[in-house]
TrEMBL record:
Top-level taxon of the source organism: Bacteria
InterPro entries: Acyl_CoA_acyltransferase, GNAT_dom
Pfam hit, one: Acetyltransf_1
Name this protein carries in UniProt: N-acetyltransferase domain-containing protein
All copies of domain N-acetyltransferase, residue ranges: 2-139
Lineage: Bacteria, Bacillati, Bacillota, Bacilli, Bacillales
SUPFAM superfamilies: Acyl-CoA N-acyltransferases (Nat)
Length: 139
């Protein structure tokens, strides 16, 4: 059974392990821990196993901004990113929700489009030669 809930500090190691599986290191541990402590980390579970997570903040022009969505590689294309985004939109503390992805990340662009996000701008010069596309959805 698939569920989505807010993460608690006991979930930290499992979340960091999923992140490490994707990026190859545990460099975001402090960021993830901070998000959990603020109540800004959401996890997707399959039965009792954490299979993905979403981190957001509300510092983007006083709007919610999804800064990170990570799903374990073995669990991708099974709807977990969409479940996380749906939960985020429904529970967002702001009416406007933004996020972004690189122009080269076609898979994530498809997830945004599937979930009703629209393109809202482009930021150049974050990653050389790979502009960041900003996405938006209203609650």
């Amino acid at each position: 059974m698939k569920t989505v809930v807010r993460a608690n500090i006991e979930d930290l190691d499992k979340i960091v392990n999923i992140d490490s599986e994707v990026i190859g290191n545990k460099s975001r541990r402090d960021c993830i821990e901070n998000a959990i402590e603020l109540g800004h980390c959401i996890i997707a579970k399959e039965e009792d196993d954490i299979v993905g997570f979403l981190i957001y903040d509300t510092n983007f022009f006083e709007c919610s901004f999804i800064s990170l969505i990570i799903v374990s590689p073995s669990k991708r294309r099974k709807g977990y990113a969409s479940l996380l985004m749906d939960y985020m939109i429904r529970t967002s503390p702001t009416t406007k929700v933004f996020s972004s992805t690189n122009r080269s990340n076609i898979s994530m662009q498809k997830v945004f489009n599937k979930n009703g996000f629209i393109q809202s701008g482009i930021v150049e010069n974050l990653d050389e030669g790979d502009p960041e596309i900003i996405y938006f959805k209203s609650k």
